[in-house]
Amino acid sequence: MTLAELGNELGISHQQLQKYETGTNRLSAGMLSNVADVLRVPIASLFEDENQAQNKTADPSARARAECHSWIDRTGSTERLGMMAKVLKVMSAD
């Protein structure tokens, strides 16, 4: 999803999203909730505490697993989830 597409879903410009991204403007709690809804992720996944950041850099495989989980969680289609499962199954066969 591009910034423009996300902006359309949220009813704001991609420039405003860039301001949120760079920290020029702050996200309200309501907008944060909307972003999580559009991205189909829990609000908590938009935050990262220090321990998580340290763990991710310490264990690259844990970081990769977390990234895979994130993409899986964003997928709303049962058909696409099935395709993802097949790809992962083939790739995991050593």
UniProtKB/TrEMBL annotation:
Gene3D superfamilies associated with the record: lambda repressor-like DNA-binding domains
GO molecular function, one term: DNA binding
CDD domains, per database record: HTH_XRE
Signal peptide feature range: none
Cited Pfam families: HTH_3
Protein's name according to its UniProt entry: Uncharacterized protein
The species this protein was found in: Hyphomonas pacifica
